[in-house]
Amino acid sequence: MAETESPAPKAPRLGSADVLAMALTFFALGVTLQVLLIDRGTSVGRALLASSVIFSATSQFAYLAVRDAGGGEWAAISAGAVVATRFGIMSMTLSPRLPHVRWRRVAAALNAFDPNVAVAIQQETPKDVEREFWRTTAAMMTGWFLGILVGTFIGNVVGDIDRLGLDAVFPAALLAIIGNLIRSGDGRIAAVAGGLICIVLLPVAPAGIPIILSVLGVAVAIILRRPEAAR
Amino acid sequence: MSTLSIIALVVAVWGQRLLGAFVVGPVLGRRPVVAQAMGLLPAAVVMAVIIQLTVAEGKSLVVDERLAGMAVAGILVWRRAPFLAVVLAAAAVTALLRVC
Fold it and tell me: Is residue A173, in this structure, part of any structural domain at all?
């Protein structure tokens, strides 16, 4: 089985180079989020706690973006909750493929992210699914927790985080995450519609609403594609 | 982040993962439209977050170095470049343009 240099979800199993790349990626995301949290006035202790227990960096970024735009606490929390639907879908995809042991399914569901589910569901037997899931998870989590530790301690030193381009790290990571979805026709329409809804509403709607209403992009995609499917 | 937001997000994020695995998933098989909608949801909401992080400054739309970094990221994603390369290139382009 050839090892590739990328953490390509195409690879049936992760080679050691993939594991390292995965860990490095999550390390970079962890550092970025932590530096940003501290830059936005979160105390060191609370920043560490938040990034250790929330298990959705996307939600944290969405929360911060809404707060930056002047949104209230609950608007920001709602935006963070809406973007976490992605993880509900991930665990929904993963769960039926795992061995039928309730607590092990719960543990796996809570750790469902994009890369580990993508690798796991390509395995054949439930045992293999579970093993590859946890191997990938271990690589991600190792990188993540080292990243948030390092980010916490350099957060006070870095100063102007924009100078390092750190503010581009997370949107770029998100784009890579939905890359495969955007390659499909439906996914592309949903993404463009969701993005347009957000752009149009950003200047006029209360902060948080643009992200929440972007779910309507899904309806646009389904409606536009339906006649085609019926033909 | 406030303590309230940490608790609320833990409940929302953990709750949705459990709901997906144990409630929504098992009943979805019978409703293909729902399944299709769920599959498309990440594309729509994640793109909205990307937009907010790329072209928003508070409540106004701005075009700045981030957009150039994201354009490069977009090309790399389209060409199926490794995840880490996408992230590093976006940061590097954004940072370099700010120096210039």
Answer: no
pTM: 0.85
Q: What is the DSSP letter of A68?
A: H
User: Are A42 and B14 a contacting pair at CB < 8 A?
Assistant: no
Q: A75 lies in which domain range?
A: 16-166
Q: Do residues A152 and A43 both lie within one domain?
A: yes
Expressed in percent and rounded to 5, the helix, strand and coil fractions of chain B are: 80, 5, 15
A161 touches chain B (CB under 8 A): no
CA A133, CA A229: separation in Å to the nearest integer?
A: 34
CB A152 within 8 A of CB A168: no
Q: Show residues of chain A in contact with B27, CB under 8 Å.
A: none
Domain end among A110, A136, A166: A166
Position of tokens 């911060």? A64
Query: How far is A185 from B93, CA to CA, in rounded Å?
Result: 29
Whether residue A37 lies within 8 A of chain B, CB to CB, comes out as yes
Please give the Cα distance from B51 to A208 (Å, whole number): 13
Write out pLDDT tens, residues A50-81: 999 999 999 999 999 899 888 999 999 999 99
- In this structure, the answer to whether residues A57 and A162 fall within a common structural domain is yes
Q: Is residue A171 part of a domain?
A: no
The residue from A114, A146, A166 where one domain ends is A166
Residue A2: inside a domain? no
Question: Domain tally for chain A?
Answer: 2
Distance CA B35, CA B42 (A): 13
Residues A204 and A181: their CA atoms lie apart, in Å, by 29
Q: Give bridge partners of residue B57 from the DSSP assignment.
A: B60
